[in-house]
Structure formats: C-alpha cells, structure tokens
Specification:
mainly alpha, single chain, about 190 residues, 4 helices, about 90% helix
Length: about 190
Amino acid sequence: MSGGGGGTEASVGGEAAAGGGDKRRDSPGTAGSPAQLVIKDLGEIHSRLLDHRPVVQGETRYFVKEFEEKRGLREMRVLENLRNMIHETNEHTLPKCRETMQDNLNQVLQRLQAATDSVCRLQEREQERKKIYNDHLLANEKQHLIQWEDFLKEQHNKQAEMDEEHRKAMERLKEQYAEMEKDLAKFSTF
C-alpha cells in the first residue's frame, strides 16, 4: 500500500512541477495550490486505505459464484439421487407391493366376509334372545297384573268380611251395653 501511495504522490508532484497544460491545475484558486494537492492526495489515500467497497464487491462476486457452483452441484446430486430412488421404486418396490397387496387382499376380503357373516349371526342370536326375553317379561308382567288384581279382589273381600265382622261385633257390644244399662237402670232405682 505504501508503494501505491508513493507513486501517486510522485505523479501529482511531477505534474505540479512540470506545470503541464491542465487548466484545472493551472488555475490559481484550484488544483494548483498545495492545499488542494494535499486534499486530493488525502482523498486518494483514504479511498485506498478505508474504502473497501471494490475489494468487498470482488470477494462477494467470487463467493456467490463459488456458492452457486457448489449449490448447483449439490442440487444436481440430490436430483440424481431422487431420480434413482424413483426409478428403483417404480421398477422394483411398486410391483412387489402390488403383488403382495393382491395376494393379501383376497385373504383379507375372505376374512372380512367371514367376520361379517359371524357378526350377522351373533346379531340375529342377540335379537332372538332379546325377543324371547321381552316376551318372557311381557308374560311375567301380565301374570303379575293378574295376580295383583286377584290380590286386590281378595283384599277387598277380606276388607268386606272384616267390616261385616266389625259391624256385627259393634251391634253385639251395643246390645250388651244396652242390656247393661237396663240392668244398671234397674239397680239404680232402689
């Protein structure tokens, strides 16, 4: 870097000493003054030392180029692997799966049909058992209703008998008390 800076100063100084035909350098208030030359040199030094945009842009372009190449190669490998996997699947795995599925599907369908038939038989048996149970419940309920009606009739008859016995007992007691009052009335007159 120091070599580049020295070359710049020499060229600037050489032009100033030679007094070339450049109008900007010859004009009294512009580039011809030593302050202007120093400012220009400082600007060049500053851009070389501190302005890294051109270098960074070059490095960035290089990095992007390398990254895209590597990425492209990696994606190509991935795509090639996918293509091989798809080819393997289509040529070998899929036919094996299809054959196995067809072989096992018939067995599964037969088992499913047998299971369906078995379930239907069980359901019919259950419905018959429920029907018999419901019929038995209805018969028992009718029998209990008949027994209940007989019981109520019997209770009514017993109640009527008890009422009759009670009425007769009351009449006997009334007669007995009426006789006792008559006997008592006979004794109380003395």
